[in-house]
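I have a small job for you when you get a moment. Would you make up a two-line entry for one protein for me to read? No commentary is needed, just the two lines. Write everything out right here, beneath this request.
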Amino acid sequence: MFGLKRITIAAHERGLVFRNRSFKSVLEPGVYWMLDPLGRTDVQVHDLSEPEFAHPRLALLLKECRDVVDQYFTVVELGEREIGVVSKQGRVTGILAPGARQLYWRGPVDVGVERVDISENFEVEPRLARVLVRAKAPLAAGVAEAVFSVEVPDTATALLIVDGAFEKLLGPGLHAFWKYQRVIKVEQADRRVQAMEVTGQEILTCDKVSLRVNLTALWQVEDVVRARSSVTDVTDSVYKTLQFALRAAVGGRTLDELLADKTLLDREILAGAVSGLAVQGVAVRSVGVKDVILPGEMKAILNQVVEAEKRAQANLIQRREETAAMRSLLNTARMMDDNPTLLRLKELETLEKITEKVDRLTVFGGLEGVLKDTVRIQLPAG
């Protein structure tokens, strides 16, 4: 029949009836016949499996048909300092921004919205943070716009900066914050002991000798807040402080003093670096001068000096040994002069050593001849 419309609403659908572009009613599941010869009636069919309801005249519907809206929809209206965490069938599926207004069809999909006040506490609770930060598409896109997250390793500490002001320190673990109405930034600082190399430093000693010195130091950030507020770059500040302490220690000594005791140089550099970096929240654990490199000419001269000193020491030792030997011989001679028997024993000892080296020995006059007369040693002919 002309102008007669057949409208079918399935069990999972609802129909909104508009006549002359004004809302009239909601059609529940069933078959409907409508007489509309002038085409002034429009029926909009909505699938309840997608519970979100959006309409260009939503504000008018809420104002003029609030009873009908409350019957078929769940109405969520957030304040300017509230956000909404949307869950469907018990699973988080979306986030509503502050001030949002959203309608959800009452139907087969169980929709819940958790309101969160972010006027004071804007940190996402740990249980929800793990769900949001590790969410997959399509939820991940909404999370990226709403949540700022950071994972602090167990070797570091993080500083939370909100709207340009330091808020608090963050310990190791996952942290998440609502972005809305705030600018959030996190700066991480490594709390482990770190090594610093200060190499290739050309320095003049007190006696005008040019040296190249290499230094190694171990340092650690102790007060992260103080370090951030004191210097723009902690690593660069540590390097410069060590460099200045090294130059002050080397420049105030002669070459001989430096070469005589390097540990004293280490202690002086450490004391200067500790006092300079303590006010910045940085602790210096140890300092060590690795290399003291002399220029080529000075190295040759120093080698000559060392060689001369060692040669003189060797000569002195040799003279001492010769003097000791002569003194021993003199004492032995005096004892033999005072004791003839000792002299004869010495002669026998000498004779014994001689006889060890000959094949045959002929002695005339017996033992008396050996002791008193001249002993002739004849080697056999041929």
Q: What stands out?
A: The chain is about 40% helix and 35% strand. The CA atoms of residues 21 and 42 lie 8 Å apart.
